[in-house]
Write the structure tokens for this entry.
Amino acid sequence: MLANVLGKENKDGLTAAEEILLALHAKAKKGDTRAAELLLDRGYGKPKQTSETTLKTTEPLVIIKTKEDNA
């Protein structure tokens, strides 16, 4: 349903998705860093994040997520 809404052309010949991209572009040009980030992430992908470790093993790393205290 969303794809149908975003893909429909309006009176100016633009789709809703194009209108959204143009609005984000205008905000980014005015200095809205969140709009710029959204455009760049969608257009080029998010930058890879790296991390450093001092582990000296060839065994697979297992990450266990625990429930955080809300206290």
In short: The mean pLDDT is 87. The chain has one domain: 1-71. The first helix runs from residue 2 to 7.
